[in-house]
Amino acid sequence: MNKYIKILLFLIIFSGLLTGGYFFILNQINTPVSGQFKEQSFVIEKGESLKEISEHLEKEGLINQDYWFKFYVLGKGWAGRLQAGEYTLSPSMSILEIAENLAEGKTISDISITIPEGFTLKQIDSRLTQVGLIDKGGLLNFNQKEFLILNSQFSISNLEGFLFPDTYKFRKDNSLEEIIRKILNNFDKKLSEDLRAEIQKQRKNIFEIITLASIVQNEALTNEEMPVIAGVFSNRLTIGLPLQSDATINYITGKNLRQPSIKDTEVNSLYNTYLHKGLPPGPISNPGLDAIKAAIYPQKTDYFYFLHPLNGPTVFSKTLKEHNSNKAKYLP
């Protein structure tokens, strides 16, 4: 037989073997153990290896051979991505589907929680407690300073202001440190390089911006008026007028009043911006991105005053005389 024919035959046979092998592997990965839909719980403990998970899947009858699960996961580069937690799986799922579920952490024990814009540390503690993620007071009594020194790039000693408002998913077994780290990482992502560059350009620091943003967040009735309110506060800071923010008074008293009483505005606290000029010692809430942007890019305005009527939109004034007139007109 001509040697070229032999080579050709070899290539044909080899190609056939490769093709057959390819489809055999695809069959192993894509074909479920059973066509019967029957859900069952499957738990991955923290620290379990790919080998242990594969063997456990085979033992539970969710896959035929642990080898093919390991083969697929290693081929995808997911060995380090399989997440601990409780899952709902079925023998009617293929290796591909099971691997994707485990790599994406689609657990049934996920707890979804929303932190609204303007929530304080105390309110976040209460919400985490309500869903069973922490014991009451766990966040408030947490050693924030030590944690932040080790885990935050910002020069801060308190979490207030830096727990970014958003919707989060946590596992029931997440530690408080893991919860805080996830929220802080989100803050880090949301504060873009452009925003950081603008803060630096203005020769300010992130702590100052977040402190102002937290006040703007709790003073503004709408996102649209945030830049104007930030502009008012910027004007007052520039000429040395006290901010006289009612939101800072509410932070001290724990009340939620549109118009604090005169007695409340006289309370002795460094957070009392009626008594003390400049920004308070730190943020009074955890502001959203709109408030942060407003603090970075305040609207240029001639306003130095504003008030909140009990029923109606915010009213702005340029002079004290105009402001007093508006108080007589809009406030009881």
Architecture blueprint of SSEs:
Elements: H1 3-30, E1 40-44, H2 50-59, H3 66-76, E2 85-89, H4 95-104, E3 110-114, H5 121-130, H6 144-151, E4 167-171, H7 176-190, H8 193-201, H9 206-219, H10 226-239, H11 246-253, H12 289-296, E5 305-307, E6 315-317, H13 320-330
In angstroms, what separates the terminal alpha carbons? 109 Å
**How many distinct domains?**
4
Number of helices: 13
Low-confidence stretches at least 5 residues in length (pLDDT < 50)? none
Largest beta-sheet characterization: 2 strands, antiparallel
Tell me the Rg in angstroms: 29 Å
Mean pLDDT: 87
Rough shape? elongated
Helix content: 40-55%
Strand content: 5-15%
| Order of neighbouring strands in the sheet with most strands | 1-2
Structural class: mainly alpha
Q: How do the helices and strands follow one another from N- to C-terminus? A: HEHHEHEHHEHHHHHHEEH
Question: Tally of extended strands?
Answer: 6
Membrane topology: Single-pass membrane protein
Enzyme class: lyase
GO molecular function: lytic endotransglycosylase activity
Catalytic activity: a peptidoglycan chain = a peptidoglycan chain with N-acetyl-1,6-anhydromuramyl-[peptide] at the reducing end + a peptidoglycan chain with N-acetylglucosamine at the non-reducing end
